[in-house]
Specification:
Blueprint (H helix, E strand, L loop, with lengths): L13 H18 L5 H12 L17 H6 L1 H9 L9 E2 L2 E2 L8 H12 L27 E5 L4 E2 L6 E8 L4 E10 L5 E10 L2 E9 L3 E2 L8 E3 L4 E8 L6 E2 L2 E7 L9 E5 L2 E4 L4 E8 L8 E6 L5 E7 L10 E9 L4 E4 L3 E7 H10 L1
Amino acid sequence: MTIWRWPWRRSNLRPIRLIAVACVWSFGFASTIAPTYLADVRPILAKNCSPCHAPGSVAPFALRTYEDAFRWRTEIAAYAARRAMPPINAEGGPFDGVAGLRLTDHEIKALQDWALSGAPKGEGDDRPIPTLTAERWTVGHPDIVLKAGVGETVGATGEEAVRTYRLPFGREIYIRSVDVLPSAPKSAHHLQLFWRKGADQGFVGAWTSGFGPMALGAGVAVRAPRGSELVARVQYLRTGREEDAEIAIGLVADQNRPIASPKTLFLGSGSRLIADSCVLVMALPVDGKAGQPYRLSARHLSGQTETLVSLMEWNPKWTETFHFQRPRYLAKGSVVASSSPVHLLTFDLESWYRLRELH
């Protein structure tokens, strides 16, 4: 019987051993390569941080370049690990705009690993991250400009200030967008604009520093009825010095009747029965209790309760508008409940179908 033997001697195996060791070492090294700013960190900052952390904006420092990020690398990693930034961390949604900013576990780990490994820059496009500026109108020159806070100031220290300005207007108008030019861009954080006529009121638009006007979409404009006044709620931040409170509010009007005009349902603390079927696109909670949780939910006809917006802690500095990426259908007879007053921006079904055909 012939016995089969391995044709290589032990000495012949040495090159294979060396190759195997090299492969294992290379694989282990590749799996622990540190993230770099240009490949890994820059995209995270551009999406979640730089809109507010821009020169002259409300944040205390800019995060547009590698040098900016390197200088603040330790703070970036620490705040991300605590989920203190981005600041809202809302459950429900998902949301567009600032309310939708939320770091994933993978992104948090990338920021931590980058800081711990010496914050390497890497290779690639190292141009500054583009950001909006509060020094000019975002949507072109508006059709109507109103002034608020004229002659007023915001004190250097203390709690963040929320101020309400009543702006007599009078005529009927369909408003597509609301833009803001603040005299003190580092102080004016966000604005919500409503119309009010007697006991009736409705949402008009919103603006956030670093993000600009809230987008309602093509063919959509909000109607402010004849004889109403406009009411602006402005959130100011304290900057350590006295700031000018004056802001210019720019209204972009729709000269023709829009394809669809949303309606506002106002709900105080408690619940409300939906009288007519509608599509919910946005929620604007107001007057919550600082430090307390907030929850907006809907109980559907099936008996299922859906959380629409949930905040572990209400922070008036950051709580703004919640624009749903996936609008919610609320059938007649559904019940919406909120732990604080809230404005719900909705479309009736006929208007919603017209919009769907347009898009």
